[in-house]
Amino acid sequence: MYANDGFRELDRQECLRLLAKVPVGRVVYTRRALPAVLPVNFCLDHDAAVLVRTSASAELVHAIDGAVVAFEADEVDATTHSGWSVVVTGAATAVTDPAEHARLLRSGPRPWVPAPQEVFVRIAPELVTGRALVGGHTLYGVRLPH
């Protein structure tokens, strides 16, 4: 990012604080050698890992278990031309430990569409980046007319 491009870089703690405020994000992964994006509800675990709860038979679980993926969430205000975007990049793994699964049933993300056999996928926060849009500014910091 350039110093005057209208964006402000966010540090890791600010990124995690913002992520904790929104219920929906997008998993970015590879499907049949092509990029794929899937919106999901999520929450952050105590170690800042992104937790997704889905059906054990979902294509997503098989596509991302053991792979490096990106997870993106944002909040945008179209009226004020402001907002933020955070990307978490890391290895995705299905939770297989029974004790961990039981803990996540109590504290993990709530399902929006319940499934008979649910699984949790954890995305490790190996790289956390974000930026905030400073509303209404051009590339050179000049305010846009309304």
Word description of this protein:
The mean pLDDT is 89. The chain starts with 6 loop residues before the first strand and ends in a 13-residue tail after the last strand. It has a 6-stranded antiparallel β-barrel with strand order 2-3-4-7-6-5. It contains 3 helices and 8 strands. It is α+β, with helices and mostly antiparallel strands and 146 residues long. Strand 3 and strand 4 form a beta hairpin. The protein is 16% helix and 45% strand. It is globular.
Compact description:
With 146 residues, the chain is α+β, with helices and mostly antiparallel strands. It has three helices and eight strands; from the N terminus they run βαβββαββαββ.
List keywords for this structure.
146 residues, alpha+beta, 6-stranded antiparallel beta barrel, 8 strands
Largest beta sheet: what is the strand line-up? 2-3-4-7-6-5
What is the N-to-C succession of helices and strands? Answer: EHEEEHEEHEE
How would you sum up the major sheet?
6 strands, antiparallel, barrel
Please count the helical segments.
3
What number is the mean pLDDT? Answer: 89
User: How does the helix and strand content classify structurally?
Assistant: alpha+beta
What quaternary form is this? Answer: single chain
Give the low-confidence spans: none
| Radius of gyration, taken over Cα atoms and rounded to an integer in Å | 17 Å
